[in-house]
Amino acid sequence: MSSSSSRKHAGPAVGDQPTVPEPTFSERARTLVHMGRIGSLSTLSRKQLGFPFGSVMPYGLDARGRPIFLISTMAMHTQNLQADSRASLLVTQPDASGDPLGASRVTLIGNAQIIPEPEVGDARGLYLERYANAKYWVDFEDFYFYRMDVLDVYYVGGFGVMGWVQVSDYDSAQPDPLADAAAGIIEHMNTDHKDALVLLARSFGGIESQEAAMTAVDRLGFQVRLKMPDGMKGARIGFLREVSNPGDARKVLVEMVQQARQKP
Asked: Is residue 1 over pLDDT 80?
């Protein structure tokens, strides 16, 4: 395994259980930015020199995962960027519940600058794909498209799971194929198949629990939060094989439950 932090896998093994394959930090970062839609943009204050200035910021994404902003010259963050293009964008797990420090988040660091006119058409299309309502102000004279050229990435996957991601790895990574369906899969499993999750944790994770809830899912497996006699514990369970779409994920989960029920 590479020593690069972008190659670390997001989540340690539980107890003496073997490590279960997981997406790399770069893949998880791209997936989270894909799902996030809205972030916290920090610019350098023009009024209070050297101090960060935070703003709520919707964003689009290009093919390299670079955020695209549609911002007005009247906005303080735009005025800050005109004076100093250095900025960061914090994106947090959109469906995080419970302790927010246990949820995933990613910080993109880079320079946010106005997009050259020949590239505005593409940026406009990408942005409006996410924010159709922006069509009502996209052509206002004081609004311009900005793009952050990412220089560095820091990913946090929860408690004790964190690391820097090489920009080249982030640029080339793709969002997980289950990203857009993950929330529905998790809700379905936690609402209709709680007992099956307990069974899967026992059979494929070697962990006996009182209750289990799915907290995340990706093409290689899923995370569960387990209620134990001595408290809560997290674990990862790998799929029987890599999946490429929600239908495949459903088939694999059904197979795993069937196998677990057949075990003595």
From this structure: no
